[in-house]
Amino acid sequence: MKFQHAIASAISLAVARAWAAPTDTLTIDTPSRLALFQCGLINITWHGGQGPYTLSVLLAGSASETPYDVYSNLRASPYTWNTNVQDGNNATLSVKDNTGALAYTSSIFVNGQDNMSCLKN
């Protein structure tokens, strides 16, 4: 009887730990190359992690560079980004959660269009 009680207690403890353990690894979806246009709106979607989130735009495909732009205190995914990167550039997006976890997209080419109203000076 003691053995059965010990087994039941161990199983209960394992289930409780599994329930409490964070299983949502932070990931970010890479937008389609055909969907990213200069000054175009695009939904940036991430999954997992713990909010609030910070979305950063990195140029030249390097995650170690100083961000070109940063959007802080985002509560939920998706975030509608006005692609303020000039056409012909490659951008990488990163999302950071409240715990410091980071996720990156692949490098994305920004396509051109006539609208230049959103570009930074």
TrEMBL record:
Ordered alphabetically, the record's keywords are: Signal
Domain of life where this protein originates: Eukaryota
Give the signal peptide range: 1-20
Q: Supply the PANTHER family for this chain.
A: CHROMOSOME 1, WHOLE GENOME SHOTGUN SEQUENCE, CLEAVAGE_POLYADENYLATION SPECIFICITY FACTOR A SUBUNIT N-TERMINAL DOMAIN-CONTAINING PROTEIN
Query: What protein name applies here?
Result: Uncharacterized protein
* Species of provenance: Coniophora puteana (strain RWD-64-598)
Give the lineage: Eukaryota, Fungi, Dikarya, Basidiomycota, Agaricomycotina
